[in-house]
C-alpha cells in the first residue's frame, strides 16, 4: 500500500526551510500532501488562495507532492484524504514543546495517525515565515531564503505599496 503523509502548516509564506522538508519527505514517502491550515486565530499576510498558489508553484517539480487546504481538526482531515501520518519540521529546542503538545493531542484524538518530525537543515534553523515577513517589510535581503516569485510577492505586498 502506498504511504501518504500530510504536511500541515500556515505557510504564510512558504520558505526554503519548508521546501527542504517537503523535498526530503518526498524522497521517503509515496505521496506528500502539503496542506494550508485555515487558522481562525491568525491574521495572515497572504490569503488562503495565494498561499495554495505559492505552494503549488514551488512544488510542481515533484510528481508525488500535492497541495491542498483545510480547516478544523488535522486528524479528521488526514483521515479524509487517506493519510497515515502528519509531517512537521523541527528547528530548535524551542519548537519542541509546542510540537510535543500538538502531537500528543493528535495521538489522543486518533491513535492510528502518527506524527513524524524531520529536523531542519541547519542552514534554515533560524528561518520562519515571521522573520521573513519582518525582514521583507523593512526591505531586507531575503533573496536566498524564499523562492524568487515569493520574494517578488513579498515586495509587492510591502515595499512597492509603501512607495510615495
Ligand atoms: P504553523 O503555524 O503550523 O507552525 P508554519 O508554516 O509556521 O505553520 O510551519 C509549518 C511547519 O513547518 C512546522 O512544523 C514548522 O516547525 C516547520 N518549519 C517552519 N520553518 C521551518 C524551517 N526553516 N525548517 C524546518 N521546518 C520548518
From TrEMBL:
Pathway involvement of the protein, from the record: Cofactor biosynthesis; coenzyme A biosynthesis; CoA from (R)-pantothenate: step 4/5
Alphabetical keyword list: ATP-binding, Coenzyme A biosynthesis, Cytoplasm, Magnesium, Nucleotide-binding, Nucleotidyltransferase, Transferase
Cofactor(s) listed in the protein's UniProt record: Mg(2+)
Cellular location(s): Cytoplasm
List of residues binding ATP: 10-11, 18, 89-91, 99, 124-130
CDD domains, alphabetized: PPAT (cd02163)
EC number: 2.7.7.3
Highest taxon listed in the record's lineage: Bacteria
GO cellular component: cytoplasm
SUPFAM superfamilies: Nucleotidylyl transferase
Cytidyltransferase-like domain boundaries: 6-134
Name listed for the protein in its UniProt record: Phosphopantetheine adenylyltransferase
Originating species: Halanaerobium saccharolyticum
Amino acid at each position: 500500500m502506498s504511504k501518504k503523509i500530510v504536511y500541515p502548516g500556515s505557510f504564510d509564506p512558504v520558505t526554503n526551510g519548508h521546501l527542504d522538508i517537503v523535498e526530503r519527505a518526498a524522497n521517503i514517502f509515496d505521496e506528500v500532501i502539503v496542506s494550508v491550515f485555515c487558522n481562525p486565530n491568525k491574521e495572515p499576510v497572504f490569503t488562503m488562495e495565494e498561499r495554495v498558489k505559492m505552494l503549488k508553484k514551488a512544488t510542481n517539480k515533484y510528481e508525488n507532492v500535492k497541495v491542498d487546504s483545510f480547516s478544523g481538526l488535522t486528524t479528521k482531515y488526514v483521515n479524509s484524504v487517506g493519510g497515515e501520518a502528519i509531517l512537521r519540521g523541527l528547528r530548535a529546542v524551542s519548537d519542541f514543546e509546542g510540537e510535543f503538545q500538538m502531537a500528543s493531542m493528535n495521538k489522543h484524538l486518533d491513535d492510528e495517525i502518527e506524527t513524524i518530525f524531520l529536523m531542519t537543515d541547519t542552514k534554515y534553523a533560524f528561518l520562519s515565515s515571521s522573520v521573513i515577513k519582518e525582514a521583507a517589510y523593512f526591505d531586507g535581503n531575503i533573496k536566498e531564503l524564499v523562492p524568487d516569485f515569493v520574494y517578488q510577492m513579498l515586495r509587492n505586498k510591502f515595499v512597492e505599496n509603501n512607495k510615495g
